[in-house]
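User: For this week's homework, look closely at the record that follows, marking any run of repeated tokens, and judge whether sequence predicts the tokens.
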Amino acid sequence: MFHAFSKSLPGIFLQCWKWFNLPWHFVAIVLTYGLVTSGFDWWYFEQTRSELFHPFVFAAGIGGFFVPVLVPVTLYVAGEFKARKDFMLAASSAAKAVVLASVIAAFYKAFTGRIQPEFLTQTSSIDISKNFNFGFLEHGIFWGWPSSHTAVAFALAFSLMLSFPQSRIVRYAAVLYMLLIALGASVGFHWFSDVLAGAIIGTMIGIVANRHGRSSS
């Protein structure tokens, strides 16, 4: 099972860069450019400096780390226990979406090197929202553009919604989860454009991972 899972990842990764999926990347980059150069990122940052948002920030930080691990594992165990093939396929698609979103976001971050906002800072007179360090590993792969938390959340959510299209519970829970992660990240440890780009790229990855899972079943 693990061998088949890992063997399929390179192919799905390449699918995310096929010509018909490049518009997703293009839109994320263009919108980011507009939000950065227009000053919207900095304006949004200044408007959201409040302790009222801190619970959302911490919820996004914790939920964005544990949920993408727990959901595929839970689905897999439930599928084995109940002999539900649809659960097993959903678990596989969700896990692939999570892994690929993490890898692709890290790949972008390795080259963009964007400086992250300091979410505990209440006021600041220095606009650092335009600070990118283009190159390779100029600012690591854990911070910056796009938001990994958001990309992973949207990839997971869309993969699950496509795996269970008739389930309102899955749909509502998935939408609530990805919006909570996006909100927490955007008012905390990421610029708004990081989050928007992560949402766009993550959506594409979730769709591709789910489509691959259905075609290979």
Q: What stands out?
A: The chain has a mean pLDDT of 91.
